[in-house]
Amino acid sequence: MKPFVYVANWKMNLSFTQEVAFAKQNQADLIELGKKPDTTIVLCPSYCSLAPLSELFKNSSIALGAQDCSAYKPGAHTGQIHAQTLAELGCTFCIVGHSEKRTQCHETNEQIAQKVAHLIVHNITPIICIGETIKDHRAGKTVAILEEQLAPIVAAFIHAETIPPLCFAYEPIWAIGTGVIPTPEVLKTTYAWLRAHLQQKLGHASQNTRLMYGGSVDEQTSAKITMLADIDGLLIGSASLDFQKFKKIVELQR
Ligand code: PEP
Q1: Cα diameter, the chain
Q2: What is the atom index within ligand 1 of the atom nearest the CA of 169?
Q3: How far from each other are the two terminal CA atoms of the chain, in whole angstroms?
Q4: Model confidence band, residue 138 (pLDDT cutoffs 50, 70, 90)
Q5: pLDDT value of residue 226
Q6: For residue 145, is pLDDT > 90?
Q7: What are the φ and ψ backbone dihedral angles of 188, each rounded to 5 degrees?
Q8: CA-based torsion, 92, 96, 100, 101: positive or negative
Q9: Least CB-packed of 52, 139, 164, 168 within 10 Å?
Q10: What are the beta bridge partners of residue 66?
């Protein structure tokens, strides 16, 4: 059985001091929670907190993830962070293509695919976020948008015998931070399409892909979401900053 993955995306909600304090305050409980069988917990703080958190959670099963990485090779790219640095800091996961980065930094699908390529070289599992706007959702364009977002990533692996582990997180933009979650029908249809699409494009190598969900997951909604959809993990934003809520989400699952 694949472990069920819980990704805590802290975004830029806390300062460096606050992130480290939060991690220290919940260190023992997080390590205990991480012992749950078939479970992987990934903490994604801001870049600056990766080193101290790596120290706090060394020798535990708590994994560390970054919230982004550069699409470029090492060189003159002021303000960017390369996958190798993330690996040296102890990251084994990295979120890419989050809708906030796509919107606020105008990221393209091709740049996201380049990030994926760098992460793989450094044995970091990419968590690739995909999802449509409410306008596209209402216009029935969800599948078309997802297909477009996936295209350069899928193309990179199309003839591969085996592929590295890849996580795809379906995060409808209209569900992020809104308290609105997709209906069971929408989830069923979307995940069925995603699985079939990856299988069609990648063949048996698609077994190394995981499908996750993100968008307004909390302790009230998580069980409902994962019961209904064929998913292998959750990407949790605001609820991951309340340790009691996060703990409940992990404990409730399966
Ligand atoms: C996210 O932005 O990845 C996310 C899932 O946020 P929230 O849980 O706050 O909707």
Answers
A1: 48
A2: 3
A3: 12
A4: very high
A5: 84
A6: yes
A7: -60, -50
A8: positive
A9: 139
A10: 94
Percent of the chain with pLDDT over 70: 99
What single-letter amino acid sits at 137? Answer: H
Angstrom distance (rounded) from CA 3 to CA 237:
20
> Per-residue pLDDT tens for 171-190?
999 999 999 999 999 999 99
Using CA atoms, how far apart are residues 246 and 254, in angstroms rounded to an integer? 15
Full-model pTM: 0.96
**CA pair distance 199, 206, nearest whole angstrom:** 5
Place of tokens 């892909």: 209
Architecture of domain 4-8+19-251: Alpha-Beta Barrel (3.20)
Just list the catalytic residues. 98, 171
- For the chain, percent of residues with pLDDT exceeding 90: 90
Q: Which two tokens stand for residue 232?
A: 């292998």
Q: In terms of C-beta density within 10 A (0-12 exposed, 13-18 middle, 19 or more buried), how is residue 62 classed?
A: buried
Pick the atom of ligand 1 nearest to 238's CA.
9
H helix runs in the chain, sequence order: 16-25, 27-33, 50-56, 83-88, 99-104, 109-121, 134-138, 142-157, 184-202, 222-228, 243-252
Residues with beta carbon inside 6 Å of ligand 1? 9, 171, 176-177, 214-217, 235-239
Residue of 74, 101, 96, 76 lying closest to 85 (CA atoms): 74
- Domain residue ranges of the chain, discontinuous segments joined by +: 4-8+19-251
**Residues near 106 by beta carbon (within 8 Å), at least 6 away in sequence:** none
Give the pLDDT confidence of 8-32 residue by residue, as tens digits. Answer: 999 999 999 999 999 999 999 999 9
- Sole residue written with tokens 């692996």: 157
Cα-to-centroid distance, 172 and ligand 1 (Å): 10
